[in-house]
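User: I've been trying to design a sequence by hand for this structure and keep getting stuck. Would you show me what you'd pick, starting by listing the structure so we're on the same page?

Assistant: Good idea, let's start from the same input. This is the structure you sent:
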C-alpha cells in the first residue's frame, strides 16, 4: 500500500511565483534555459540549469555547476524568493490544457515504496542520467522538481479536491511557452490531511507517469543518506521525495512520433510496397485524414504526401501487453524489418517528436530535407501503461508523452 505524507514546501511568495517558476530541467537545453531566464535572477533555471551562470559551452555536468546550484539555492532562500511553509501540508496542483483540467496532489512519497515496487515504473533508466540528478540532489539536499505519478481514480480524493478548488487558489497563472493555466491550493486542515494519508494507505500502487530518472535519483539519494545515518529513525525527511499524484482517468497521453533520416536504400515506391506486406496502405488527402483513429493504425508522411497504414489482422498476439503496443509493432515491422533501425536508443538515423508539437512539426522535418519520412502513432492509453507496470514488464523507449508538463519552482522539498 502507498505511503505518503505532507511536507513543508519551500515556495515562492505569491507575487513572485511567475518570476521563479520554470519548465522542467529535461525539456530544454542549456541555451534555451539561458534565453528563457534572460536577466531574471529569480528564475529557477539558476538552480536546475545552473550552467547558465557560466560561459556559453560550459558542460551541465561540470562539477562547478552542481556547486553553483547549491549556492543559488541558498541565495533563493536568503533573498526570500523561496520560503518554507510554517507547517506540513498537502497541496492541490491543477493544470488546464485546451479546456481540460487535471488535479494532482503534491505529496512526499516514501523511498521504501520505490525500492519495494509499490511505486511502479514502466521505463528503463540510464545510469548516466540517474547520476546527474543524484549529484544535483546531493548538492542541494532537496528535491527541486517533482515527479509525476498516477493512481487509480478514487472518489474520496476526488470529492475532497472538488471542495478545495471551489475556493481562491494560492497561485493562478498562465505559463509562457505552452500557454497552459497552473493553479495551486493549500490543504492545511488536519482532518483533510489525515483523510488523504489514510486514503492513499489503501491504494495498492502508485505509477510513475513521467520522471523515471528523477524518481530513481531521489530514491537512491534518500536511501544513501539513510545508510549514512546510524541513528536514523525512519522519520527523517530524506526518507521521502516529492511527487504530484494525479488520478489516472484525468491524464492525457499524447502520441510520441518518429522521424527517420533515410529510407535504408529504398525508393519511396519500394518502401510503400514493403509496407503493403503487413499493412493496408492508403494515400489520403491530408494530415487529419491520416491521423490514426485506433490502435494498430499509423500515419506515414513521405515526399509531401500522407498515407494511412492499417495493420493486417492476426499479425500480433493481443494477449502480449508489450508486443501488441503500437510502438512495438512499428519498431519491428517498419523500423527494424524495413528500415534497418535496430536500437531506438542509439541509432542516429531516428529522432522523436512529442505529440504536442503536432503533425505540422513532422511535415516540417521532412519537407526541410532533414528527414525522409515521419511515422505517427496512436497514443498509448493510461490503462496500457498501468497494465504493463503491473505485469513487471518495461515499455519500449520513446513510448509515452504526457502533457501538460509539471511546472517547476512552485514547490520544493528539503531533505534535511
Amino acid at each position: 500500500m502507498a505511503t505518503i505524507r505532507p511536507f513543508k514546501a519551500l515556495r515562492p511568495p505569491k507575487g513572485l511565483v511567475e518570476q521563479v517558476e520554470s519548465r522542467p530541467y529535461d525539456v530544454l537545453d542549456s541555451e534555451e534555459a539561458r534565453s528563457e531566464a534572460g536577466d531574471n535572477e529569480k528564475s529557477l533555471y539558476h538552480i536546475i540549469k545552473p550552467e547558465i551562470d557560466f560561459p556559453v559551452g560550459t558542460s551541465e555536468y561540470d562539477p562547478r555547476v552542481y556547486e553553483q546550484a547549491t549556492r543559488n539555492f541558498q541565495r533563493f532562500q536568503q533573498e526570500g524568493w523561496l520560503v518554507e511553509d510554517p507547517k506540513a501540508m498537502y497541496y492541490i496542483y491543477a493544470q488546464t490544457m485546451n479546456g481540460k483540467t487535471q488535479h494532482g496532489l503534491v505529496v512526499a512519497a516514501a523511498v521504501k515504496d520505490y525500492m519495494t515496487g509499490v511505486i511502479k515504473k514502466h521505463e528503463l533508466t540510464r545510469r548516466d542520467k540517474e547520476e546527474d540528478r543524484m549529484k544535483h540532489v546531493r548538492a542541494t539536499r532537496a528535491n527541486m522538481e517533482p515527479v509525476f505519478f498516477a493512481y487509480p481514480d478514487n472518489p474520496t480524493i476526488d470529492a475532497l479536491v472538488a471542495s478545495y478548488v471551489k475556493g481562491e487558489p494560492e497561485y493562478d497563472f498562465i505559463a509562457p511557452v505552452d500557454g497552459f493555466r497552473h493553479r495551486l491550493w493549500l490543504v492545511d486542515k488536519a482532518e483533510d490531511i489525515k483523510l488523504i494519508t489514510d486514503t492513499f494507505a489503501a491504494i495498492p500502487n502508485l505509477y510513475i507517469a513521467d520522471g523515471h530518472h528523477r524518481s530513481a535519483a531521489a530514491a537512491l539519494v534518500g536511501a544513501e543518506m539513510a545508510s549514512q545515518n546510524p541513528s536514523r529513525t525512519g522519520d527523517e525527511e530524506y526518507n521521502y521525495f516529492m511527487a504530484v499524484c494525479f488520478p489516472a482517468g484525468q491524464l492525457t497521453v499524447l502520441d510520441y512520433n518518429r522521424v527517420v533520416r533515410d529510407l535504408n536504400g529504398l525508393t519511396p515506391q519500394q518502401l510503400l510496397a514493403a509496407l503493403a506486406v503487413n499493412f493496408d496502405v492508403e494515400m489520403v488527402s491530408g494530415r487529419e485524414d491520416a491521423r490514426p483513429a485506433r490502435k494498430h493504425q499509423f500515419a506515414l508522411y513521405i515526399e509531401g504526401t500522407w498515407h494511412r497504414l492499417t495493420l493486417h489482422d492476426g499479425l500480433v498476439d493481443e494477449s502480449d501487453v508489450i508486443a501488441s503496443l503500437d510502438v512495438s509493432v512499428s519498431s519491428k515491422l517498419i523500423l527494424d524489418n524495413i528500415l534497418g533501425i535496430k536500437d531506438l536508443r542509439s541509432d542516429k538515423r531516428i529522432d522523436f517528436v512529442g505529440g504536442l508539437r503536432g503533425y505540422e512539426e513532422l511535415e516540417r522535418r521532412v519537407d526541410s530535407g532533414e528527414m525522409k519520412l515521419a511515422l505517427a502513432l496512436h497514443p498509448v492509453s493510461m490503462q496500457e501503461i498501468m497494465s504493463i507496470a503491473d505485469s513487471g514488464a518495461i515499455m519500449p523507449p520513446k513510448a509515452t508523452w504526457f502533457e501538460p508538463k509539471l511546472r517547476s519552482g512552485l514547490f520544493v522539498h528539503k531533505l534535511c
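That's my pick for every position. To get oriented when you compare it with your attempt: The chain is about 30% helix and 25% strand. The longest helix spans residues 63-78.
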